[in-house]
Amino acid sequence: MGCDMADKHKFDKDLDSNLNYLKDLLGVGENFDVIFREYLVGRKRAASFSINGMTNDIVLSQVLESVLTVKPEELTINTLQKVFKTRANHLQVKLQANVNDAVTSLLSGETLFLIDGEDQAIVIDARAYPVRAPAESSLERVTRGSRDSFVETIVYNTALIRRRLRDPNLRFEIVKVGTRSQCDIAVAYIKDITNPKFVDEVKERLNKINIDGVPMAEKAIEEYLTGQKRWNIFPLVRYTERPDIAVVHLLEGHVCIIVDTSPDIIILPTTFWHHVQHAEEFRQNVVIGTYLRTIRLLGILMSLLLPPLWLSMVFQRHLLPEALAFLGPRDPGIIPLGLQFILAEIGFEIVRMATVHVPTAQATALGFIGAFMLGEFATQVGLFGTETIFYIAVAAVGSFATPSVEFAMAMRLCRMVLLVLVMLFKLPGLIGGLIGLAILLFNTKSFSVPYMWPLVPFNFTAFKDVMFRLPIPHKVLRPAVLKPQDLDRLGDKKDGAEDKDKNKN
User: What Å distances lie between residue 352 and 86, 299, 356, 361, 396, CA to CA?
Assistant: First the structure.
């Protein structure tokens, strides 16, 4: 009988056959967290399966109490339908005839209830996932604004978005990924705004994922979505832990990917400018927001260019104008100047990784130790020149000012490559490296969207928006590169007036 059920993937009317198959499949008696109970519903045998720790015991007890108090005369005919429609008094209850789907629901935290003589199971959604309370994001802090952020439970994350976007056209389509993990992934978009071709492309790539599980959650999904471009060092998607940022992008026509067990939401497609903007800019005055954005862009450029540019000028001092004759190391140190920068970069990365891995209470002490090792002690011993430490410190501060962690890592890698090219080829190496970097950026695309848009191809209106923090009332157009169905963000006042007239009549 078990083989027949496995082949047909359907429940049998014989309760014992169903129970034997499910017990063997779920390892009842071997797994301590699989709860199996048998009951009498009227005079008919029944049984339930649930997962300990994923079920709301109070809700489930109330539902079962209602089901088990049914009288035998009420179940003479259509037993399942009567129990389902009159006794299973829960908001989320469904009938399931497919065994595999029912088992997937069970392992997701739902409860299976089977009755003898019925070829369908009642699936009761009485889940109670372990969840932490929404707290402020540690990566996207703002001085003013909401303090809630996404958590590891998908239903909580969708609720945080729904709270801010009460649009009936908002869609959350569930896709399961992983033949064994069966991870829930929600594709979020606004039906009458987002380009349907783009939505179809995202869902098609998700459905093509063929792997047993995705325990690394959103990062594994990103690598499948980006496809062959996953070897590109620049991030092709944006991550956020803030619901307000996710809603802003949904209203622009983006697609958000919500992966269960992850507090990071994937936003796609993205451009270079998405990774250098921060919510803090929109929480401040327009002028102050523009100022902050400008300073941040300068910090990113300094982080990338300052160490290799200074090193190239020092290697070829004869090219320096008289106004820049002061450049150059006063105390060059024992180690060759180019190698100093490489070793300092490696030391900085080691300290950064160590501060992430150690407990929070020890991170501050480790930071002080790293600062003394790379700075004070290294210069006093004579290994490093003071200028080397200074320029690496400025570059490090600039990288930390980058809102996107992934983009900051890409910039640090680019800086390392530029330093190596300067060591080998001096100023021509820097120029060649920058040209190669520009070619890479201009040829990169995120889901057919040019990475450097609106700079390449140039769009003045959109470029003005990314360079300056414009007032919100002036931002009435959605990004044209996304090809949204509704280009402007203005409400239809005419339809609103007509609705008011109808209500009056």
Answer: 60, 19, 7, 15, 10
Give dist(CA 266, CA 258) in Å, integer: 7
Tens of pLDDT, residue by residue over 162-200, are 999 999 999 999 999 988 888 999 999 999 999 999 999
Which residues, 6+ apart, have CB-to-CB distance to 43 below 8 Å?
Answer: 72, 75
User: Could you give the maximum distance between any two Cα atoms of the chain, in Å?
Assistant: 104
The tokens describing 79, both together, are 């037993």
Please list, residue by residue across 307-316, b when 16 or more beta carbons sit within 10 angstroms of its beta carbon and e when fewer do: bbbbbbbbbe
3-state secondary structure of 98: strand
3-class secondary structure, 361: helix
Which residue shows structure tokens 């792997």? 211
Closest by alpha carbon to 417, among 427, 408, 429? 429
Q: What per-residue confidence (pLDDT) applies to 71?
A: 78
Tens digits of per-residue pLDDT, 297-311?
A: 999 999 999 999 989
**Bond from prior residue into 457 cis (ω within 30 degrees of 0):** yes
Amino acid identity, residue 276?
A: V
Residue with the bigger pLDDT between 344 and 165: it is: 165
Q: Is 77 helix (H, G, I), strand (E, B) or coil?
A: coil
Does the pLDDT at position 333 exceed 90? no
Q: Residue range 130-135: average pLDDT?
A: 80
Nearest CA among 86, 89, 105 for reference residue 97: 105
- Residues 430 and 417: their CA atoms lie apart, in Å, by 9
Is 0.70 topped by the overall pTM?
yes
**Residues contacting residue 122 through CB under 8 Å, at least 6 positions apart:** 80, 83, 84, 88, 93, 94, 95, 96, 112, 113, 114, 115
Phi, psi angle pair for 95, to nearest 5°? -100, 140
Residue with the two structure tokens 């390449």: 456
Alpha-carbon distance 219 to 201, whole Å? 19
Round to whole Å and give the CA distance between 169 and 349: 45
CA–CA distance, 24 with 334 (Å, rounded to integer):
70
Q: What is the DSSP string of 198-257?
A: HHHHHHHHHHT---S--TTTHHHHHHHHHGGGGG-SS-SSEEE--HHHHHHHHHHT-EEE
Using only C-alpha atoms, the chain has a radius of gyration, in whole angstroms, of 30
- CA–CA–CA angle 182, 186, 191 (5° rounding): 145
